Amino acid sequence: MKKFVKEFKEFISRGNVMDLAVGVIIGGAFKTIIDSLVKDILMPIIGGITGGVDLSSLTFNIRGIAVSYGLFINAIINFLIIAFVIFVIIKLLAKMQRKRVVEEVAEIEAVVAEEVLLLREIRDTLRNSGK
Question: Rounded to whole angstroms, how far apart are CA atoms 65 and 50?
Fold first, then answer.
């Protein structure tokens, strides 16, 4: 049992598990933001464009059972909007990451160029002092 507990502690303390836990927590908070964006901003705009059509009330009956296909259509629209927003955010984050990498590479190249210049000066000084 002690071995099991020790292995479990090692598993939990690994970076991947902690990163996953943080991701789930942030994802939950992010979901609230996205839900508000869809419900409070985008859906009223879409409702205005479509003339205020409320899809959630669309139903049909099969043997006395009401099938609310309008709610399903709303869920699909919400999913597509959320997926699009996440896509845009990921694209922006990737662009910022690429920009940061380019800046880091430029900084490294500048340091290397400065070192090369210094080495050339030392080489030239050694050549001239030997004459």
Answer: 28
- The dihedral over CA atoms of 24, 25, 26, 28, expressed in degrees to the nearest 10, equals 80
* Count of domains for the chain: 1
d(CA 67, CA 73): 12
pLDDT confidence of 75, banded at 50, 70, 90?
confident
**54-81: burial string, b at 16+ Cβ within 10 Å, e else:** ebeeeeeeeeeeeeeebeeebeeebeeb
Q: Residue 48 is part of which domain span?
A: 2-106
Decide if 124 is inside a domain: no
Q: What is the pLDDT of residues 11-23, one digit of tens each?
A: 777 767 777 888 8
* CA distances to 13, 96, 98, 104 from 107, in Å: 35, 17, 14, 5
